[in-house]
Specification:
The chain has 3 domains: 179 residues, D-Maltodextrin-Binding Protein, domain 2 (3-Layer(aba) Sandwich), CATH 3.40.190; 267 residues, 3-Layer(aba) Sandwich (D-Maltodextrin-Binding Protein, domain 2), CATH 3.40.190; 199 residues, no CATH class. The longest helix is centred in the last third of the chain and has 21 residues. Helix 9 crosses helix 10. The protein has a 7-stranded mixed sheet with strand order 14-15-16-17-19-20-18. It is of the alpha+beta class. The chain is 34% helix and 17% strand.
């Protein structure tokens, strides 16, 4: 049977929803044989007896769990509704979390700390770490920028660093790292921010997706015991069930240890030393500008954590009356110079300059003709749908829908956006109203009124998402003649008059030279801390990223599915060719798994990873440290993998866990650090399966 790829929508939650809808509707005509997603999908499939075990007595069809690193296959015995664990869930595009250290910033912090009473540890690991830090700090421009941002030591620095020993081990457990972050925030004028550190742009420590920190740290503190976790799997008569109740009882060890971790996170966040980044925010945006000392994020995001050229930021001019208080709050980051911003791709440009041969033009031609697509923005050619277009129908999802698309908010906005889409060499600045602070929102109406007067208002639009609760609303400002050079040309750049145009709304473009930003050679990545405190018995590596699962169809379809998966994870090598490859660029023969993981920047944890060289992923330092961590887990000694068990309720529970941690940061932020959501309130907000 031929292999056909189907896009189930924007993101894994959308795909999970699509599977659930097809299962409920008993879709027999256009179902699929394989899906790349998370364990809750397998739990749903198992509840309908629609999952496929990839084990077979026929060798050519058999994919056994022994092909993989054991820690990544435990999910088969920890997923709800699966009877008699087998190879239903196979690990595919796996990542973990990485601790990203800004070399110039940490070098400056340690220098000042030593001047105020700290000492540097002299053990072998620490000595090696300090040598690497020294090599990453050899740019006078960076030092000048860091000193300007972070400032001199505060009067509190002596108290914070007296007799304090700085060692590599601080970065290997969360408890010590949070303590270090708190000390840093109190010890530098720029970070302390006149006694209001939670409002400072300068932060010691930022965390993308704090759910991972919380559950990983708790698993380590509980001795890597699944029976005590907040998501607890159990097996009775060969069938897996999942409980979410342990954290709701103050008598449990889960509750007591979770409270210790939560309270420590809360105290660090109240000090300003820790910032929990809420959905859609990433510490890397500011860390590349030397505003964070270190941060934790996905190992898949390497290229977002350093810069290769200068950047531009659009923000409100401080000197404009009425805007001064939010000049730093209302910012729009765009890498304008590298042709990666939301420049407008007019229909004329799309159809004429590329002769209508682009994939985007071909894909959306019918909607362009009907007027259901108003236009496209950015070099990725993201479409903006007309307000009346329903992209959620099955047919439209399969044909058109994918990530990073937009929809006009109303008929009035249709007219505005249509006009905007035909601006000559236009650019669109998008500001996310849904994620704006209360202070930012008070100024949006003023900006819109001003933009209407100067003909720079582009209209309102939403991010296109199948889940209505995840559709963010944007306000757009548009400017004509913002670029020179042909569409998609390397010579395309901002026009000389762009700054004058945005100044009409009180915006100013701030350009920062590369020498004052975090470059690749200055970034020091480590695996995220693997323990809550250094006395924990096991190191825990957090596993994230989708797996591949089979969906039952018929005997012929199931056999073809197993045959394909067996090939996918085989040790046989093939010469793969990408579009544009020629004889000079042809790759060496590779296994299918090796080809995919190299191209996708994720790791497929077959046992074959033990034979991969440290430089298998080239210059990608994140994947280098991730590969080492996965290899350590494969040894099965003191390093274990943690992956959240699968349940049909898992996504709802995780969303409530994320929302509850967001609530902690919000209460701290709105009270300037004087108040924080209690642990009891945090637990109260965590949903149970009986709740809607």
């Amino acid at each position: 049977m031929p292999v056909e790829l189907k896009n189930l929508g924007s993101g894994y939650p959308t795909g999970a929803t699509k599977v659930n809808n097809d299962l409920t509707a008993k879709n027999k005509n256009s179902f699929y044989n394989l899906i790349i997603n998370y364990a809750p999908v397998a739990a749903n499939l198992a509840s309908y007896n629609m999952g496929i075990s990839f084990n077979s007595e026929e060798p050519s069809l058999n994919t056994d769990l022994t092909r993989f690193v054991p820690g990544f296959t435990k999910i088969n015995s920890q997923t709800e509704n699966i009877n008699n664990a087998s190879s239903y869930i196979l690990p595919l595009l796996k990542s973990t979390n990485v601790l990203s250290i800004n070399g110039p910033v940490l070098h400056y912090i340690i220098k000042v700390a030593v001047e105020h009473g700290a000492t540097k540890a002299t053990d072998e690991e620490s000595t090696k770490f300090f040598e690497e830090l020294e090599r990453a700090n050899n740019n006078d421009s960076d030092l000048a920028k860091v000193t300007e941002l972070w400032g001199a030591a505060t009067s509190e620095a002596n108290n914070q660093f007296k007799d304090y020993v700085i060692s590599k081990s601080i970065f290997e457990n969360y408890k010590d790292l949070l303590e270090f972050a708190t000390k840093i925030q109190k010890s530098f004028v720029g970070a302390y921010n006149n006694g209001n550190p939670v409002a400072s742009e300068i932060r010691a420590f930022g965390i993308d997706g704090p759910v991972a920190l919380f559950v990983q740290a708790l698993y380590a503190k509980l001795g890597a015991d699944n029976s005590k976790m907040i998501i607890t799997p159990s097996t009775v008569d060969g069938k897996v069930s999942i409980s979410f109740s342990s954290i709701h009882s103050p008598q449990t060890e889960t509750y007591r240890e979770a409270k210790i971790i939560y309270d420590a996170i809360s105290e660090a966040a109240k000090s300003g030393g820790l910032k929990l980044l809420t959905g859609g925010q990433f510490a890397s945006n500011d860390q590349t500008k030397h505003k964070y000392a270190f941060s934790i994020g996905s190992s898949a995001g390497y290229n977002h954590n350093f810069v290769t050229k200068g950047t531009s930021t659009i923000e409100l001019n401080k000197s404009v009356e009425g805007y001064s208080s939010i000049s730093k709050l209302f910012t729009i980051d765009n890498d304008f110079e590298s042709n990666n911003s939301k420049f407008i791709v007019s229909m004329e440009k799309l159809s004429e300059e590329v002769n209508g041969k682009s994939k985007t033009y071909k894909k959306f031609k019918d909607l362009i003709t009907s007027g259901d697509v108003l236009g496209f923005i950015s070099r990725y050619e993201n479409p903006i749908y007309k307000s009346t277009f329903d992209y959620s129908t099955t047919a439209n999802q399969q044909k058109y829908f994918s990530g990073h698309q937009y929809k006009s908010a109303s008929a009035e906005d249709d007219a505005l956006l249509t006009k905007a889409m035909n601006l000559q060499d236009g650019i669109m600045l998008l500001f996310n109203i849904s994620k704006a602070s209360a202070e930012q929102k008070t100024y949006i109406d003023k900006l819109v009124a001003k933009a209407k007067e100067s003909n720079n208002f582009g209209g309102y639009l939403y991010s296109a998402d199948l889940d209505a609760n995840k559709r963010d609303k944007y306000v757009s400002f548009v400017f004509a003649n913002a670029y020179t050079g042909k569409y998609s040309s390397k010579s395309r750049k901002l026009a000389a008059g762009f700054d004058a145009e945005i100044a009409k709304l009180g915006f100013v473009s701030n350009k920062t030279e590369l020498s004052s930003l975090l470059e690749e050679s200055e970034l020091l990545p480590l695996i995220a801390p693997t323990k809550w405190e250094k006395t924990d018995p096991k190191k825990v590596v957090y596993s994230q990223g989708p797996s591949i699962m089979g969906i039952h169809s018929n005997e012929k379809g199931d056999k073809a599915t197993k045959l394909f998966v067996s090939w996918l994870f085989s040790k046989d090598k093939f010469t793969f060719k990408k579009d544009g490859d020629d004889e000079k660029t042809m790759r060496e023969p590779q296994t299918p798994a090796d080809f995919i993981q190299k191209e996708m920047n994720y790791i497929i944890p077959t046992r074959n990873i033990t034979s991969l060289n440290d430089d298998f992923f080239g210059k990608n330092k994140y994947l280098e440290v991730t590969l080492k961590a996965f290899k350590d887990a494969n040894k099965g000694e003191n390093t274990v993998i943690y992956e959240e068990p699968g349940s049909t309720f898992s996504n709802a529970f995780r969303d409530s866990l994320q929302a509850s941690l967001d609530g902690l940061q919000t209460t701290i932020q709105t009270s300037n650090g004087s108040n924080a959501q209690s642990f009891e309130k945090f637990v109260e907000n965590l949903k149970q399966p009986t709740e809607s």
